[in-house]
Design brief:
Helix content is 36%, strand content 18%. The chain is of the alpha+beta class. The radius of gyration is 26 Å and the shape is globular.
């Protein structure tokens, strides 16, 4: 392979030179678990999806045992005899550590795009200094402050930064796959042109961001097998045969910036909350309790975004993987009386919707709600938008004044944030008179519709009762 780095001082950066970084947490879910259970370090560990269905995060040791991404738990359960540790997904913990990780990463660059729970792009364009050195400092800080391992990839474009992160991870995990000096932190912008081409030639086209299996097969049929082949492909032909997206990908591999950072993502167009049940649900009251809880969660997201919903779709279905069961799948979209973020109105709509869909004699496996017709709460805020022109009636048929729903919902959110999710909730959501513990493990223990999470670890950072106590 040609010399990797350009000769020092031979080709100084000309400002402003586009420089994008992708920061990615390694085996993120497993790494979060290891922060509070260091005894898991060096052991094969996997995190399972909802209902403990399949592996969604694997330690390197678990990968070495042969556990595949997405492999059903029942297929790898026998590996427990060889030391495999399986844990239920603890999204409360992962979300909190992700927020902290993004906060730290964002402090290193003027612009940030949070791409996923464990990835973010940083724009170092115009930032003086050695960007690879900054990447090393960032990686060290994440490790020291949070205990989370990560890799940093840098390049002139988002596509090259994503590819650089792949190189950094591969060089770290699989010595010999790429030059060792590119492990952990890789800056493709510092490579000499011939060295960059050699690296792209050693990278299968499937590793390029946005090239999925179907596109890979089509590219292979066109003789485009590596990232270098895609870089050298005719952009016009790529647009004609595939899409403008793939054309931009090829241009980005050439170092031409076609994709900007989306550091201020637009408002959501819809909000979906759904769950697969731990056990089949056959009773309407259980479904109504579940849907009320889902609507409450959707309402919280809605208020967090400062939006109101105009309609709600309610759906349910039986399991297509149980052909011996009678099958039923249905949905209904219900308009709301007016744009609202009121938990009570949304929960009531969900309860009414599921009652219309329910058919006795079926074993339902999944249900959910989707909020539609979202709009900004407006300058007056949700509180004023919630005011109704018609006074509701009490049980005796007498009109009574409408309370300030916006302030009530704000108080509800504040209480739930302070004392735990579900502390204050609508009665239809169930739970009797007992305060709910944060997270769904408690729900699973009380409700037939709850998820199966038999291997759930404590919520160390989001629930006082689960905090780690150190005794001297």
């Amino acid at each position: 392979m040609p010399a990797l780095l350009a000769a020092p001082g031979a080709a100084p950066r000309r400002a402003p030179v586009s420089s994008i970084a992708l920061v990615d947490g390694n085996n993120f879910y497993v790494s979060c678990e290891r922060v509070f259970r260091p005894a898991l370090a060096g052991k094969p560990v996997i995190v399972l999806s909802n209902n403990d269905g399949c592996a969604i995060s694997r330690s390197n040791e678990a990968k070495a045992l042969g556990v595949r991404m997405g492999q059903p738990w029942f297929q790898c359960r026998a590996l427990q005899a060889r030391g495999l540790v399986a844990l239920s997904a603890n999204f409360a913990l992962y979300g909190d550590l992700s927020d902290r990780m993004m906060s730290i990463a964002g402090s290193f660059a003027p612009r940030q795009e949070v791409y996923s729970i464990d990835e973010c792009f940083l724009d170092f364009t115009g930032v003086p200094g050695d960007h690879r050195a900054i990447g090393r400092a960032l990686r060290a800080r994440l490790q020291q402050w949070l205990g989370l391992p990560s890799c940093v990839g840098l390049g002139p474009t988002k596509t090259l930064a994503k590819l650089a992160n792949h190189v950094a991870k591969s060089a770290e995990r699989k010595p010999g796959s790429y030059p060792a000096e590119l492990a952990s932190v890789c800056d493709l912008g510092q490579l000499a042109p011939d060295a960059l081409d050699a690296l792209l030639a050693a990278t299968p086209v499937a590793e390029v961001w946005g090239v999925g299996r179907r596109i890979e097969a089509a590219l292979q049929a066109q003789g485009i097998a590596t990232a270098l082949d895609l870089k050298r492909a005719d952009p016009a032909a790529l647009r004609a045969r595939f899409s403008v997206v793939l054309e931009k990908t090829a241009r980005e591999l050439r170092g031409l910036r076609c994709l900007d950072l989306d550091d201020q993502p637009g408002p959501r167009q819809q909000i979906l909350v759904s769950r697969s049940f731990g056990d089949p649900v056959t009773r309407l009251d259980d479904l109504q309790q579940a849907l009320s809880r889902f609507a409450s969660r959707a309402a919280e997201k809605l208020r967090l975004d400062g939006q109101l919903a105009g309609a709600m779709t309610v759906f349910l279905r039986t399991s297509p993987f149980r052909p011996q069961d009678a099958q039923h799948s249905a949905s209904i979209t219900l308009p709301l009386p007016g744009p609202t973020a009121d938990t009570r109105k949304l929960a009531d709509t969900a309860v009414r919707g599921i009652a219309q869909l329910f058919r006795p004699g079926h074993r339902y496996a999944k249900a959910g709600v989707m909020l539609l017709g979202l709009e900004a709460a407006g300058a007056q805020g949700a509180a004023q938008a919630e005011l109704s022109l018609e006074l509701p009636e009490d049980h005796a048929g007498h009109s009574r004044p409408t309370r300030d729903a916006g302030r009530l919902m704000a108080s509800m959110d504040a209480l739930n944030r302070r004392f735990g999710a579900g502390t204050l909730r609508v009665a239809a959501a169930g739970g009797g008179g007992h305060p709910l513990r944060a997270g769904e493990a408690a729900e699973a223990g009380r409700a037939r519709w709850g998820m199966r999470r038999e291997r759930l670890t404590p919520q160390y950072t989001t629930r006082w009762g689960d905090r780690v106590v150190v005794r001297g």
